[in-house]
Each structure stands twice: as structure tokens, then as C-alpha cells.
Automatic annotation (TrEMBL):
The name this protein goes by in its record: UDP-N-acetylglucosamine--N-acetylmuramyl-(pentapeptide) pyrophosphoryl-undecaprenol N-acetylglucosamine transferase
Annotated compartments: Cell membrane
Its membrane topology: Peripheral membrane protein
Coiled coil region boundaries: 313-340
Protein source organism: Fictibacillus arsenicus
Length: 354
């Protein structure tokens, strides 16, 4: 039986593509194992969402800026490499597949030391630091965007698009409404501030609630620790830290979305043809990857964009009005998008061992 070690974490975008691949890999007879951090979001997503055995290793953040933790973290990364090296020695996988994030770097280095082929996937137009480092040790790099290819060595990258979980496309509108306690008299607006939530979006939404609730029923995915208990009994408003199992039904019940521009999320909304208003993470808080993602979608007529610097109660309400008015047009543009068979492309390459 062929063995594959999966790795990636730190935020859900570095894990959910694995969730799309796992059922098919199992059907093909692969023996799967996951190496992640001791307590990152990847641990609960894998342990609760699959029966793939999970192993936690030490991990440190790699920063481009000065921070006192920069002194301690290289030791944590070195410890992670040693732990991953031992684990890989026990599992003896045929390959390692990394979806990026800092925890993946020690696993990739350990795999390279053991001469195990490494595959990685990059979801954004520009690679993150973890994937930039990992690419030096990888045989092939799968990328979501064609524009990402130029950041890697010639011939190394394959455009596969974004692997999307099958179940996300099979949700039920009725089940979604019933789970949310909603009726069908008003459209459902889902707000998803990235897998870790977004403070500024949460504030603007909560400030605009009285106006929003006149026109929409609201699902607010606000991230861990961001629930507002005062709003628990607000009619037509449901808040969640994260939605795992019920997400397919919730998206099936969704008419409009306000979302961060994380790559996996926006390709999911696009595939589901749900009109989206994107509020990308700022350059101050990131390398600007979400801005590029959002601009690429905007150019193709798949979304409207509201920059966080311009986000106020007024601009939020105004942007939503424009989104509603442009709905049919946007959905027509989305119809022209043909998703690549991402899961199969990735599986074919990993299986062929090239
Ligand atoms: C802050 C940060 O570093 N963000 C990055 C991170 O975003 P983030 O982790 O938010 O990633 P994405 O938006 O790409 O993916 C989030 C995933 O989580 C899922 N989900 C989310 C909320 C929820 O309640 N339930 C649920 O299942 C979504 O369906 C999606 O599959 O990785 C992305 C892909 O590299 C990057 O583009 C983002 O810039």
C-alpha cells in the first residue's frame, strides 16, 4: 500500500484543500498520515473531519520583520525538523504533500533529508514565505493561479486550480435555513472574515446590523474568540466562530457573501456562483496576496472589492447595494468560469511519482 504524508497549517486555507483530496486518495488505496502543529487549527480540522492519524510537531513562525521571538523560533523549527525526521523514518511514506504554512517547512526539510519526494501547493498569486522556502526542496509545485508559475523554477510549477471539497457543492438550502433558524422571506447574507476572523469587518458588520437586518438574514462567521454574547438573541442574525460540518448547507442557503479574499474561499464562492463583495487583508497585515487575488477576480467580473482602508458602515451598506444591483451580471460572468479538475490533476501527478 502506498503511503502519503500530508502537512500544512496555521490557518484553514492551508488545510481545506487536503480535505478535498483525502476521500479520493483513500478510495485509491493510499495510506494517509498528517503532520501538523501541536495545537493549530489543522489539528481539529483533521481530527474532527477525517480519520487520518495526526501527529503534532514543534513549529515556529518565520518572520520577515524583527521580533524577539525570532531568536527562539529557529530552535523550534530545528526541533520540528528532528521530530518530523523521526516520524517520517517510522511511517516511510512514498511522498509528502504540503499545503504550506509555517508548520510545513520542517516536514518538507525532513522529507528532503530522507530523499522522499515533496509536492507542494500554492494557493495565491505570489508565494508565501513558507512555500518559497519549501519550493527549494520540492519536485513539483501545484499552483491555483497561472500568474503564480513565474515565481518558481522553470518547469517546476503545474497549474491545477484550487482543490474544492465535493461536499461543499452538495449542500441543501432547506437544511441550511433550518440549521440557521431562518425563513425564506429575506435573502441570506453570509459574512466570512477568513478562517481566523477579521476584527475590522466584524465591527463594521455589527455597527450596521439594524440596517442590514431590514434587507437580509445574516450568517456571521467571525473567528475564534470573536462572538458577541449581546447579539445572541438577535432575530435574523446568527454568529459562529467557525463552521465545519454544516458549511455545505449554509453556503447552499447563501444568496450574497462578504468575504476576505483568501484564495480557497473565493474559488469556492466562484464555483458556487454566489455574488461576492471582497474585503482583502491589507498590505500592513500581510504580503498583499489577498489584494492581488481580489483584483484578479474583479478584472474578470466575479466580485466587487471594498478595501479595508475605506471600510465604514456607510461604504459597507453602499457596496452591498451595488452588489445586489449587479447580481445577475456577476453571476453571468461566473457562469463562464470553468473550474479545472484540480483534485484529479494533483492526484495524477502524485500517483505517477514524477
Ligand atoms: C490571514 C491569512 O494568512 N490568510 C491567508 C490564508 O487565509 P485563510 O486560511 O482564511 O484561507 P482561505 O480563505 O484560502 O481558506 C479558508 C478555508 O476555510 C474554510 N472555512 C472558513 C470558515 C469557516 O467557518 N469554515 C470553513 O470551512 C473555507 O471554506 C476555505 O476552504 O490562506 C490563504 C490561502 O493561502 C491566503 O490567500 C490568505 O491570505
Amino acid at each position: 500500500m502506498k503511503k502519503l504524508v500530508l502537512t500544512g497549517g496555521g490557518s484553514a486555507g492551508h488545510v481545506t484543500p487536503h480535505l478535498a483530496l483525502i476521500p479520493k486518495l483513500k478510495k485509491m488505496g493510499w495510506d494517509l498520515h498528517y503532520i501538523g502543529s501541536v495545537d493549530g487549527i489543522e489539528k481539529s480540522l483533521i481530527e474532527e473531519g477525517t480519520n487520518v492519524p495526526y501527529y503534532g510537531i514543534s513549529s515556529g513562525k518565520l518572520r520577515r520583520y524583527f521580533d524577539l521571538k525570532n531568536i527562539k523560533d529557529p530552535f523550534k523549527v530545528a526541533a520540528g525538523v528532528a521530530q518530523a525526521y523521526l516520524k517520517l523514518g517510522k511511517i516511510k511514506p512514498d511522498a509528502v504533500f504540503s499545503k504550506g504554512g509555517f508548520v510545513a517547512v520542517p516536514v518538507v526539510i525532513a522529507a528532503w533529508l530522507r530523499k522522499i519526494p515533496v509536492y507542494i501547493h500554492e494557493s495565491d498569486i505570489t508565494p508565501g514565505l513558507a512555500n518559497k522556502i519549501s519550493s527549494k526542496f520540492a519536485s513539483k509545485i501545484f499552483v491555483t493561479f497561472d500568474e503564480a508559475k513565474k515565481h518558481f523554477a522553470a518547469g517546476q510549477a503545474i497549474v491545477t486550480g484550487s482543490p474544492i471539497r465535493d461536499e461543499l457543492l452538495q449542500g441543501s438550502n432547506e437544511k441550511g435555513l433550518s440549521f440557521l433558524g431562518f425563513r425564506s422571506h429575506l435573502p441570506v447574507l453570509t459574512i466570512m472574515g477568513g478562517s481566523l476572523g477579521a476584527r475590522k469587518i466584524n465591527e463594521a458588520v455589527r455597527e450596521s446590523l439594524p440596517e442590514l437586518l431590514r434587507s437580509y438574514q445574516i450568517v456571521h462567521i467571525c473567528g475564534k474568540g470573536n462572538l458577541d454574547q449581546n447579539l445572541n438573541h438577535t432575530e435574523g442574525y446568527r454568529q459562529f466562530e467557525y463552521i465545519q460540518k454544516e458549511l455545505p448547507d449554509v453556503v447552499a442557503a447563501t444568496d450574497f457573501v462578504i468575504s476576505r479574499a483568501g484564495s480557497n474561499s473565493i474559488f469556492e464562492w466562484l464555483t458556487l456562483k454566489i455574488p461576492m463583495l471582497l474585503i482583502p487583508l491589507t498590505r500592513a497585515a500581510s504580503r498583499g496576496d489577498q489584494i492581488l487575488n481580489a483584483q484578479s477576480f474583479e478584472k474578470q467580473g466575479f466580485c466587487h472589492v471594498l478595501y479595508e482602508e475605506d471600510l465604514t458602515k456607510e461604504t459597507l451598506l453602499q457596496s452591498l447595494k451595488q452588489l445586489k444591483a449587479d447580481k445577475d451580471n456577476m453571476q453571468r460572468n461566473m457562469e463562464s468560469f470553468k473550474a479545472s479538475d484540480s483534485v484529479d490533476l494533483i492526484l495524477r501527478t502524485i500517483t505517477s511519482g514524477k
